[in-house]
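Model it.
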Amino acid sequence: MIEKITGNRSSYDIFLLSLQAVMRVLIVNTSERTGGAAVAANRLMKALNASGVKAKMLVREKISDDLTVAPLKQSWRLRFNFLWERWCIFCRLHFNRRHLFEIDMANTGTDITRLPEFREADIIHLHWINQGMLSLNNIRRILDSGKPVVWTMHDLWPATAICHYARGCKNFKRSCQRCQLLPSGGSKNDLSAKTWQRKQRMLEGHNVSFVACSRWLMGQARESALLRGQNIVNIPNPIDTHIYRQKDQRKAREALDLPSKGKIILFISQRVTDERKGMKYFIEAMHTLVKNHPDEAKEISIALLGGHTEEIASEFDVPVYQLGYVNNDQTIVDAYNAADVFVLPSLEDNLPNTIMEAMACGVPCVGFRVGGIPEEIDHLKNGYVAQYRDSSDLAQGIAWVLFDSDREVVVHECLTKVGHSYSQSSVALRYIEVYNEVSAQKNYKI
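Modeled.
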């Protein structure tokens, strides 16, 4: 366990001491595998364990038999926490469901400080802890425990009051109020203003080491008045290139019953109708592509992986193959390898795992110039970065990948980018540096 240091040891001595011990890290996330944050947290746990750190995950929703993942004790209370928070938000939305899952107020959760996993840990590493996992009071208890805390931001929620993406709003740079997600644009004393004050009290007197998964998110977080004075750095999510790797395209298509010939365009999202993922612009871009390249379009089809595909499949001018919602790595890897291009026209995003996964499989990507996407896609090298909300440019990007680029060169650029920037070992080492720094700042030793 971490113990208080006595005596006059320098930070460098503490750093060396910590390197000689087995560091125990508890990664806290709502889900084990559902959602981008869960996938990233799970991969980080494995990367840390492979690098000599003893890492475990604590989750509300465990679906595997992995011994390094500990679930919260199942009880009616866990379900109640989720439902109570949604009900409170639903009331403040005047019983309109439109933004029901775009807002989190963290008014209920589980106190994890009494759990053996918490007591045994040297570092507490928070990830996405919303929807009834941890309340703001629970997080304050964690901070009050004195253990060093690292918080990886998978979106902007830790730096705002209630939203995960600001949607152009600048209020978080001063103080959240008059939230555009609330009915009639909120008020000076609305839910966002009250939650902002609660978050201020939660962080008061404590230093947290925040990690943003993209340079874009780091820049946004550093502008937040809520996080003023806190340490914020950028470390990307890791990817296991032993799983996500290039395979034979023909075999991948056979495994998924996809056409053996022609070009396949892939779109993946947990819910393909999610407005933030830009399906509207993808549909428009495909209409443009078919119009501008009528002959080539005869050989094009689309593969959709995710939920609710049946709602939009008929809106395309080319054949669509619905792969459904998949939570199996091997099937997802086959989907990437079956494709000639991966398209993700997100309107707001951090550092999408899907783009990283596609490139690890040697598949060029096309997306908008927004969020962390331009950090992943190097324009006209490993893919195409289209102008924001420009479906015509998106169509041009898809056409560039399919018809104009040097396929062999672009694939090589994809694999090189992933190997240099997102490998498990390099990301784990950067996190270990953060752990050692926060331990030294706390004047602790392992």
